[in-house]
Design goal:
- This protein has 252 residues and is an alpha/beta fold.
- It has two domains: 171 residues, Rossmann fold (3-Layer(aba) Sandwich); 62 residues, Pantoate-beta-alanine ligase, C-terminal domain (Pantoate--beta-alanine Ligase, Chain: A,domain 2).
- 38% of the residues lie in helices and 21% in strands.
- The strands form two sheets. A six-stranded parallel β-sheet has the order 1-4-3-2-5-6, sandwiched between helices. It has a three-stranded antiparallel β-sheet with strand order 7-8-9, with helices on one face.
- Helix 7 crosses helix 8.
């Protein structure tokens, strides 16, 4: 695996990949888990080469404490990627990604205002801006995003269509623990008691009950509800456990 921390060195390599060879990209913020690895495996199965990006994007964190506490596991991440025989890893710093110091942003005016957008002001401005930059840098044929962040997936797909981005946005199914909890880098920050509550959260939201009943049951289990909504034929839930925000969604 070739590792690039300089975007210009990566771009030089990108130009050497023949036009008849397919490149897939998997954008991440590091702290890789089986969910990320499933995206990489799908990219490897569908393309000749796979690029993974690791960039902890500060502009999408409306809570600075959340950014500070985000897990950093560089050495483990690199080992996991090498074990998967990933072709390329791009890991730029803030100045390389934001030479304009985040003066230029991409905004969306409808879908980004509900669910996580309503709960986290400015979050999706940061997400869409950094994803567009990474798509431009990767210049890939396909980009892989998990359905756990379904709102993000929809926004990225619509953004790519709106700006005529050549990269196909490929949705991938949510990977879950045995108890049904969606895999997330945040899960590793949960206490043992918090992890038990997270298991209950995953169980409760999938019940065939109305939202009022589900909200009540979550709160009875001392799980703070951020939102519990239904859009696009899916149920979306965000909660706080151990002061850590967990999200999930599934098809109704």
């Amino acid at each position: 695996m070739k590792i690039y921390k300089n975007i210009y060195e990566w771009q030089n390599t990108r130009r050497t990949i023949p036009n008849d060879k397919k490149l897939g990209v998997v954008p991440t913020m590091g702290a890789l888990h089986e969910g990320h690895l499933s995206l990489i495996k799908q990219s490897k199965a569908e393309n000749d080469f796979t690029l993974v990006t690791i960039f902890l994007n500060p502009t999408q964190f409306n809570n600075k404490e959340d950014l500070v506490n985000y897990p950093a596991t560089w050495n483990v991440d690199v080992k996991l990627l090498k074990n998967l025989k990933t072709d390329y890893l791009l890991a730029p710093d803030f100045k390389q990604i934001y030479p304009d110091n985040y003066n230029f942003t991409i905004k969306e005016n409808k879908l980004s205002k509900i669910l996580c957008g309503s709960a986290r002001p400015g979050h999706f401005d940061g997400v869409l801006t950094v994803v567009m930059k990474l798509l431009m840098l990767a210049d890939a044929d396909r980009a892989y995003f998990g359905e756990k962040d379904f709102q993000q997936l929809l926004l990225v797909k619509k953004m790519a269509e709106a700006f005529f981005v050549k990269t196909e946005i490929v949705p991938c199914p949510t990977i879950r623990e045995k108890d049904g909890l969606a895999l997330s880098s945040r899960n590793r920050r949960l206490s043992s008691e918090g992890r038990k509550k997270a298991s209950e959260y995953a169980r409760i939201i999938k019940q065939k009950k109305n939202r009022s009943e589900i909200r009540e049951e979550l709160e009875m289990n001392n799980i703070k509800v951020d939102y519990l909504e239904e859009f696009f034929g899916r149920r979306f839930a965000a909660v706080f456990i151990d002061n850590i925000r967990l999200i999930d969604n599934f098809k109704l």
